[in-house]
Amino acid sequence: MEAQADIILANSKFSARVTKANFASLREMPKVLYPGINIAAYELPTDRTDPDILQVSSYVSLSFVLYY
Hints:
Helix content is 21%, strand content 6%. The chain is mainly alpha-helical. The protein has a domain at 1-38. The longest helix has 10 residues, at 13-22.
């Protein structure tokens, strides 16, 4: 099967290990994104005339999974 994602992120080393263990088809260990994303930085109004924003043409899909 061809890869469905460019990169897989986890919020901790534990989550990365559990994800890798439960998805045997993953070739690489998920990358740990730590510390978490600063949500407040994204609450500001967006200047849609900014050329740096216009150049972004990819999509990001986030999926949150809890392991107990």
